[in-house]
Fold each of these.
Amino acid sequence: MATILLAEDDPNLGQLVQEYLTLRGFQTDRATDGNMALELFTRGQYDLCIFDVMMPKKDGFSLAREVRMTGRDVPIIFLTAKSMKEDTIQGFKVGADDYVTKPFSMEELLLRIQAILRRYQRGSADALEPTVYTIGSFSFDYPHQVLSRHADGQEQSSQKLTSKESELLKLFAQNLNQPISRSFALKMVWGDDSYFNARSMDVYITKLRKYLRDDERVQLVNVHGEGFKLIV
């Protein structure tokens, strides 16, 4: 049974789509705003996401960007009342697999879901998530939690990381040169964005900067009003 995350703020349409997909054999979780959808996504495992574009608290495009930052290769379908070409282009730029304009038939939505799931199942059969990340002159071995620096084909230094350091660095490595919000990083690595976890993350950020300082091309910077960015 495929599991679907549905984010739709319209209570009538949301309930209708959820009930229809459930009757067709899909396990469907529904969120009524973007923040709720992100919370469900970070806690669960989904085979496909359906996001309304216009939602309170976090719109569908912003939600899709943060979903893509997790590194999970999950297909996304946008639902929207908009039909402008610019909106469609923006949807695909943030990683949409399909774009359905309201009003739509349930049968059409079902056919699109089935086609995307078949395509992903074929494409993911041999796909493996990278386990070693290149960050400038550094090599980050995530499974073994080791950060190594290389120069002239030789290993110059090696640093064993803690579990939290590894999870945090992996998140940055998956999103090189892209800003990551403090709240998003906290929820992904610590599970929530409480004040005490935020203070703890600041300590780990300082440690990662120390480990990476030997390569001046690599910088873990603060992005005002957003969070952090690992620049290479």
Note: The mean pLDDT is 88.
Amino acid sequence: MLSPEKQSLWKKLICAVQEEVKPALGCTEPVSLALACATAAAQLDGRVDRIDAWVSPNLMKNGMGVTVPGTGMTGLPVAAALGAIAGDASAGLEVLNNVTAQDVARARQMLENGAVRVMLEIPCDEILSSRAKVYAGDAWASVTIAGGHTCITRIEKQGEVLFALDDAAPAEEEACPLAVLEQTSLQDIFSFINQVPFEDIRFILDAAHLNDALSREGLSGQWGLHIGATLDRQCQRGLMTRDLSSDIVIRTSAASDARMGGATLPAMSNSGSGNQGIAATLPVVVVAEHFNASEEKLARALMLSHLCAIYIHFQLPRLSALCAVTTASMGAAAGMAWLVDGRYETLAMAIGSMIGDLSGMICDGASNSCAMKVSTSASSAWKAVLMALDDTAVTGNEGIVAHDVEQSIANLCALARQAMQQTDLQIIEIMAKKAS
């Protein structure tokens, strides 16, 4: 019989996954701005004719070069316009799910008329924030999102404050705090996924369904850099071997191709990122298929992968210079290792080796090239699993890797929180010069 303490921990871990693993249509940084604009427009009665928006440097970095689904256009201004014109303010990260071709044409006209301005918020204390002021004639409304992609902190209309987070009831995040992860270890997560009732975690199979659909779309068209489709063709030409390793990379990168290229299908995200959700999902799905794993075994492996990804990302800034697809792929390594031999030692070794392999990969903004990083990380994850199965791993005598996997994770996250902050500023400066 479960102790009350264990029951409480399991409930909180499930709640943490439900909070951090959600459907998202399009790159989540432009979508966050679109949500701010949609929420502001919902306060107005007239036709939106002008938008001014201010975003944090990190949100600007991740929104400059990404394609907005269904538009063929890149950047934050089109996301802002579509959010205000046709966004569903109640849909969270799927705010743009009902956009039509007519809406896209109207958004394009607003951009051509110079009616949409997106500017840097300077100074800005928040890593992730957007503030949108939407006009309909003389009327205006303003919405601020800060701290999380969907965390609305303030709503104003004509100078009247309609909502302020400080005055509101406790947020849902506080009712199910990710802070539970501060008292959780990888070993706790491993024990949880081995014992939790299948019915309690069946919902995670939705991640497999959504992200596999994106992968199939990526393989069927010329989305983004079409890395997955290109590698698939090279297998057909005999320049690559068709095997489990290549299938992991092809199917995972194809999903990212479709997402970053503007496909109108949602991704199941992780920690506010569709690419992180893809990286934590598809490698596990491919390995599960290879071994003809049951739905229950797939669900447990996916739960392990997504929880490990959340656990590591919780120790990072929400956005940083470290490409978080790498840490999501560490979750995938855990899930794949569990599917193959079910031992904690194997997944711990695999995560440690990945930290030794991918610790320097930078995030230089959301774009089609994210699929390259996804493919690299998926390959690294499977390579690390294969090494661990042979009782081989990067050791604590090498680089930032420690003898204990928890310390290795702490070392990696310390780099992202501290030393890589200057790297992030340099990346943003380089990208701002390109945009000017």
Note: The first strand starts at residue 23 and ends at 24.
Amino acid sequence: MVTRGVVFVHSAPAAVCPHVEWAIAGVIGDRVSLSWTPQPAQPGTLRAEVSWKGDAGTGGKLATALRAWPMVRFEVTEDASAGSDGERICHLPERGIWRTAVSANGDVMIGEDQLRSILDKATSLDGLRHDLGRALGIDLDEELEPFRRAGDGTPVTWLHQVG
């Protein structure tokens, strides 16, 4: 099944930018040249966005390729397709990867077993709120929001997976 998504490189040191392009190209199977702009939320770094089209699972492959550089802050989305949920994968330096399924409208979906586990471990209402917030990615969204806003109006490149 063919789907599409977006890679948001929220911040990367300039020296790493060519490696990010090579990593994306390795997954997409075609040359990649991103439009890098300064990231005002973290001076001295650059940001870029690229929309992609490819097979279901491409988002996960892109995130795996990009996590080779732990200093890169990125977010990969993959739209839902026939037989596959969408997903959102984030990487923040010093935090690692956060991955979740998303619905067709982009809402985070928390599975029944995950909810049961959160409820079973809860010892207080504050603890329950905290664990539900982590499952929803609220803390990640709060940290990423200044980087997202800094990219308003940034040009987006389109890529199509080959092969």
Note: The radius of gyration is 16 Å.
Amino acid sequence: MTDVLDDKRDATRFRILAAIAERQPAVSQGEIADNVGVTAQAVSEYVRELDDDGFVTKEGRSRYRVTEEGVDWLLRSAADLQRFVDHVTDDVLSSVGEDAAIATDTIEEGQQVSLSLDDGLLRATPGDEGPATGVATGTAEGDEVVGVTGFEGVIDLEPGTVVVQQVPPVRSGTASSPDALATACEGVDLVAAAGVEAVVALRGIDVEPIRFAAGAVAADAAGRGLDCAVVVTGDRVGEVTDALRDAGVAYEVSTD
């Protein structure tokens, strides 16, 4: 547990100091009191204490600024809180939350199941032989949806590949190469497009792409083990590769 959560007084100091940082230099103690849920008198006492500790400086009536020491303390406390939130989200809630899976066979409520990803979809198989397991929260026949909770282990998954295929923008006066597009799209599980030119070029080889949030869609699909092609005009490559890079997905950029 972090110090800020361990001690109610530190938690209040954290919230008041953050409120001062947000509103500085003109600080309404009454507004902070309403926001934090304490009296204005209590806010005044906390501010005086923060001043004594060197976390804020007073510049005049109701005018305060957070010092470098105050900023450092806020950052350290915020980092501790973030680590605790990550622990709750990743380690605690991941095991007690419920997700939907497709049953591969008859499953009874309370039965332990093995989890896997197939075609980007979570599958539940009766038994506990897989590297990732859970507990069914209901009954289901094969190919029906079943709830799963109590997750343990890690699903054995090979991330998918992403090829970013550039096509010329209309202002270039250059046509895209059908052969290059066909090669990029051959054998992939998902094709997305960014830009009207990309959509039209793909339709020219009888491929109907996903046309919205191409980079984010490909990143999510690759994370689920699907191979993807994203066709994009040269002036929009950055928005696609930024989304892939932010998601930690490896990709290859090709041109006509």
Note: The two ends are 54 Å apart (CA to CA).
